[in-house]
Amino acid sequence: MHKILIVEDEVPAKKKLIRFIDEICSDYQIVGEIATVKDAMSFFSSPREIDVIFSDIELRDGNIFGVYKELSVPCPIIFVTAYNKFLMEAFETNGIAYLLKPYSKDRFSKAWEKFLKLKDQSQKNYQDVINTLNELLLKRQAGFTGYKEMFPIRSARGIYFLKVAEIVYFKAEDGLVFAFDHINKKHIMSHRTLKEVIELLDPDLFFSINRGELIHRKYIERIERYDKNTLLVNLNKGMFKLKTSQQKTATFNQWIGL
C-alpha cells in the first residue's frame, strides 16, 4: 500500500489530485490532508510513515519550503503548483517531479511512474537517484536542457534577443515563422518551419493547436467552444483569439488538463 500525504489549500485542486490518484493507483492510503504551513510543521513534529508527498508550494499562510528544509522530510515529493519559478528549490528538497497547474492526467501518470521506480530501490539507491535528479534538474534551471530561453532576432539595426517567456504564440505563414509577444509585437524568426521551433521549446509550456500556430500555456486566459470539434483559445487578455484544429482539440484538452 502506498501511503500518501497531500499538502494543498485549494479544494478543487485537491479533488482533482485525489481523483487522479484513485484512477492511477489501486492500493493507497491518504495519511493526511494539510492546507497550511503551520499544520505541516505540526504534522512533521513526530515521526511519520509516508511513501510520497503531493505538495503545493504557496499555501494560505506562506511558502512550504521552509518546512521541508528544516525537517528534512525523508520521502520523495511531487510538487503541484501554479508557479514555474520554484523549480530549483523544489529539487533541493527531495522533489522528483514538478506538475505545473493545470496539469494533465498523462503528466500526473508520468510523475507517479517515476515515484514507483524510486520506491523499488533500496533506501541507499533511492538517495543516490535523488541526488542525480537534483544535479540534472539544477542544470536544467541553469539552461543546459536545450530548451530555448531566448531567440536571436535579426533586424535592420542588428540582432536583438526575444525572451521565450514573453512570447504569446508562434505562427507559420507564407514560408516564414513569426513570434507574437505580450505587447502584440510581431517578430520574424530565423527558423523556416514551426517544427524547428517546437523542438527547441518545453512541451509542458508550448502546444501546437493546429498546423500553423503554437501557443504558450501561461498566456491562456479563456477557452470557449467554437463549434462541435473546435475550441477558441483566448490569449493574453483577449489580445489574440486562435482556433484549435479538429485533429488537435482532443490532445489539447489533455495537455491543458480538461
Structure in words:
With 258 residues, the chain is α/β, with parallel strands linked by helices. The chain is built from eight helices and 17 strands. It has helices at 11-24, 37-43, 65-71, 87-90, 105-119, 123-141, 194-198, 249-256; strands at 2-7, 28-34, 52-55, 58-59, 62-63, 77-81, 95-100, 150-155, 158-163, 167-173, 176-181, 186-188, 206-208, 213-216, 220-227, 230-235, 240-243. The strands form five sheets. The protein has a five-stranded parallel sheet with strand order 2-1-3-6-7. Strands 12-11-10-14-13 form a five-stranded antiparallel sheet, with no helix packed on it. Strand 15 and strand 16 form a beta hairpin. It is elongated. The model has no long low-confidence stretch (mean pLDDT 86).
Q: What would the keywords be for this entry?
A:
258 residues; alpha/beta; five-stranded parallel beta sheet; five-stranded antiparallel beta sheet; 17 strands; 31% helix
In short:
31% of the residues lie in helices and 33% in strands. The chain has helices spanning 11-24, 37-43, 65-71, 87-90, 105-119, 123-141, 194-198, 249-256, and strands spanning 2-7, 28-34, 52-55, 58-59, 62-63, 77-81, 95-100, 150-155, 158-163, 167-173, 176-181, 186-188, 206-208, 213-216, 220-227, 230-235, 240-243.
